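Objective 1b. Sequence-to-structure analysis of Nudix hydrolase domain-containing protein.
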Amino acid sequence: MHMWLARRALNKPTYPGLLDNLAAGGISSELGVRETLIKECQEEACIPASLATLSKSVGTISYTYEGSDGGIYPECQFVYDLELPEEFVPRVGDGEVQEFYLWSLDKVKEAIGSSDFKPNCAMVALDFLIRHSYIQPDQESHYVELVEGLHQSL
């Protein structure tokens, strides 16, 4: 199993050049969660709607973060898995991404622990590794803390 990751464009105002999810974005008031997923897949990675609609809702992650203004903000992300055909290669769409990588789960796990990942995107990748039993309680001494950290009360 492998995972597609994106590298954010250098001109992004937040976290330029860091690793990101294949596609993501804020939900506007006029679109639902699934509609936003399909739109962002098309815009950011040129994933056609016919493929994006095959995605499966697998839960949420939640956390709080400190904004650049010093405020503390709660956030929840809806998480979807999408199995892409082997021959599919994402393409840069709207310019928010500079390139895509198809990495082994070992390499993804290593990157999660580095400063190369946008923090909330590392959480989504970590959630994937846990849900797919790539990280297991008998092999990870901080397993419970990792799972709890992905699901903070807001």
